[in-house]
Amino acid sequence: MVEWTEFERNTIQSIFANLNYEVTGAKALARCLVVYPWTQRYFANFGNLYNAAAIMGNPKVAAHGTVVLHGLDRAVKNMDNIKATYAELSVLHSEKLHVDPDNFKLLADCLTIVVAAQMGAAFTAEVQAAFQKFLAVVVSSLCRQYH
Ligand code: HNI
């Protein structure tokens, strides 16, 4: 079981409380699709992903980025039980969507970069450490049902 310091808990809660899920989710997923183009294969039904501009302007990418952030919100609300919280989502990504689990970390890194850019100087090294610890637990929990 993961232990969280008070600073880590407060930091995670306050970052997510101040995020605009639509904006941040869209940017993080779009960045992932541009930087790691092989991730596009899972979104073949999303229409035009031809280049960075098309990906950034694609409403399906934006909508799905928002869904992912709402998915993360469930972990924020269950910080002491993230593994169980994601059991079903892990099965879905593994058995139905067949998403290579290496990609979870890539999306998490893109989200970190987007949040860092939005927070500017407030994204200190300690804040980054807390945020990435949280995302590492998310990624590991999403990988749990892979075998
Ligand atoms: Ni992911 C669907 C959460 C990473 C590909 N994903 C979901 C849903 C949630 C979700 C929530 C909606 C489930 C439902 O309908 O019941 N995904 C997350 C989270 C992460 C993540 C929290 C990691 C931070 N997903 C990824 C990655 C990929 C991915 C890295 C592929 C590169 N996800 C998908 C696909 C779907 C999906 C594909 C189905 C989309 C659709 O609507 O067709």
From TrEMBL:
<protein>
    <recommendedName>
        <fullName>Globin domain-containing protein</fullName>
    </recommendedName>
</protein>
<dbReference type="InterPro" id="IPR012292">
    <property type="entry name" value="Globin/Proto"/>
</dbReference>
<dbReference type="GO" id="GO:0031838">
    <property type="term" value="C:haptoglobin-hemoglobin complex"/>
</dbReference>
<dbReference type="GO" id="GO:0004601">
    <property type="term" value="F:peroxidase activity"/>
</dbReference>
<keyword id="KW-0408">Iron</keyword>
<dbReference type="InterPro" id="IPR009050">
    <property type="entry name" value="Globin-like_sf"/>
</dbReference>
<dbReference type="GO" id="GO:0072562">
    <property type="term" value="C:blood microparticle"/>
</dbReference>
<dbReference type="GO" id="GO:0042744">
    <property type="term" value="P:hydrogen peroxide catabolic process"/>
</dbReference>
<dbReference type="GO" id="GO:0046872">
    <property type="term" value="F:metal ion binding"/>
</dbReference>
<dbReference type="GO" id="GO:0020037">
    <property type="term" value="F:heme binding"/>
</dbReference>
<dbReference type="GO" id="GO:0019825">
    <property type="term" value="F:oxygen binding"/>
</dbReference>
<dbReference type="InterPro" id="IPR000971">
    <property type="entry name" value="Globin"/>
</dbReference>
<dbReference type="InterPro" id="IPR050056">
    <property type="entry name" value="Hemoglobin_oxygen_transport"/>
</dbReference>
<keyword id="KW-0479">Metal-binding</keyword>
<dbReference type="GO" id="GO:0043177">
    <property type="term" value="F:organic acid binding"/>
</dbReference>
<dbReference type="InterPro" id="IPR002337">
    <property type="entry name" value="Hemoglobin_b"/>
</dbReference>
<feature type="domain" description="Globin">
    <location>
        <begin position="3"/>
        <end position="147"/>
    </location>
</feature>
<comment type="similarity">
    <text>Belongs to the globin family.</text>
</comment>
<dbReference type="Pfam" id="PF00042">
    <property type="entry name" value="Globin"/>
</dbReference>
<keyword id="KW-0561">Oxygen transport</keyword>
<dbReference type="GO" id="GO:0005833">
    <property type="term" value="C:hemoglobin complex"/>
</dbReference>
<keyword id="KW-0813">Transport</keyword>
<dbReference type="GO" id="GO:0031720">
    <property type="term" value="F:haptoglobin binding"/>
</dbReference>
<dbReference type="GO" id="GO:0005344">
    <property type="term" value="F:oxygen carrier activity"/>
</dbReference>
<keyword id="KW-0349">Heme</keyword>
